[in-house]
Amino acid sequence: MTRFIVVVLDGFGIGEMPDVTESRPQDCGANTAAKLLDHFPLKRLPTLEKLGLINITGLTRSVMQPSPLANWGTAKLAHDGCDTFMGHQEIMGTQPKPPMIKPFQASIDSIEQALNQQGYQTERISRDSLQLLVVNGAVVIGDNLEADLGQVYNLTANFSHISFEEVKKIGQVVRGANAVSRNIAFGGFIPSMERVFHAIEIKKDQQGKPAYIGVNAPDSGAYDEGFQVVHLGYGVDAQVQVPHQLHQIGIHTYLYGKVADIVQNDSGTSYTSVVDTDEIFTLLLKDLDNHQGFFCANIQETDLSGHQQDPKRYWQILEKADRGLAAVIDTLVASDVLIVMADHGNDPFIGHTKHTREQVPLMVYSPGITGVQVGYRNTLADIGASAAAFFGANPPESGCSLLAPLKLEKEPHSF
Asked: What is the spatial distance between Cα 205 and Cα 367, in angstroms, rounded to a whole number?
């Protein structure tokens, strides 16, 4: 069997991007991986150590050491900001476009009008001169407070009062009434709407004025029971991404966790709304035992730990991921490739609860290939381009394959 596997440790960046002084001064000094290693100097992540994590971060106070056998490199973010949605679109070979920045307040009228025209009942909740929308008494719409402010709107739903299918329909109406980069429709079985309302928060703009209003997603209880989610992007063309290009030559794509919620994979297998790290690896390992093709898994709990500014939980999730990666490596044969990477940073020591604009690690494993430097890449799209080249498919919209120095390039339809 021939398998190309990507595991994304969501938010596990390796140091600030060169442009943060101008673009995101709040992220100056961010280095998620190195700070965690320094904070837990006597603990090991043996699989990531073997894969070259210390080769990438440089020496820290950690007992972990560089690996002479590792194949490693780094990648910059080509998308503006540091967004999970755009990060994964970039990984799949998309050339990112600059996002629109528009607080929910600037879109609330058009969104409410569109919902009312489709027969939905709406009311507004006001806080400090800002307003949220409540739809059919069960869905609260406002700014996403965890991503870059003004680029994402959230629809937080209580499935005790409305079905996920209906929430997705509401999401499509909302998506058609605004042009920010992403709308996220999600929810869970929450004891009461009061918990959602109590999780409403306000964020200020650079002038210190209230500008963004939304629901704190972890505090809302949406993740606690029966969580489901769909991400609705703006201006992303799935026809130029890796899953589509691979499908054209008969290669199946398997997506796990948040990447399955984010990336269009109509002809493949997508395990959506899965957050638990152990469950992600269980699903991945089961498929690796029985199938070939392209596999991409997102480990979201690292990112959630960063949002919570919780280093201890972050490290515990890394330990789970490390064990899961060891199990994946045990299944691999000489024709397989594993890439472990991130999509941005989420430094739990930075002092704010948002993503951090950081470069990401690239750790590449294929049995029998050792000690190769795959370079300092300018875009995450090089991963998608590598997957396409590996299977001999047409390239995606963006990216250059990193597999040549590993001597892993394949001829079209050669397997």
From this structure: 50
Element (H, E) at 228: strand 228-233
Q: How many Å apart are CA 27 and CA 354, to the nearest integer? A: 9
Q: How far is CA 106 from CA 100, 112, 139, 275, in A?
A: 12, 12, 19, 32
Residue 231 CA to residue 7 CA, distance in Å, equals 20
Range of the domain at 211: 104-233
Cα dihedral 232→233→237→238 (10° resolution): -40
Angstrom distance (rounded) from CA 18 to CA 183: 29
Q: Is the pLDDT of residue 413 over 60?
A: no
36: helix, strand or coil: helix
Domain tally, the chain: 2
First-to-final CA distance of the chain: 9
Instruction: List the CATH number of the domain containing 78.
Output: 3.40.720.10
d(CA 60, CA 80): 29
pTM: 0.81
Alpha carbon distance 257, 280 (integer Å): 7
pLDDT of residue 231: 85
Q: 277 and 383 in one domain?
A: yes
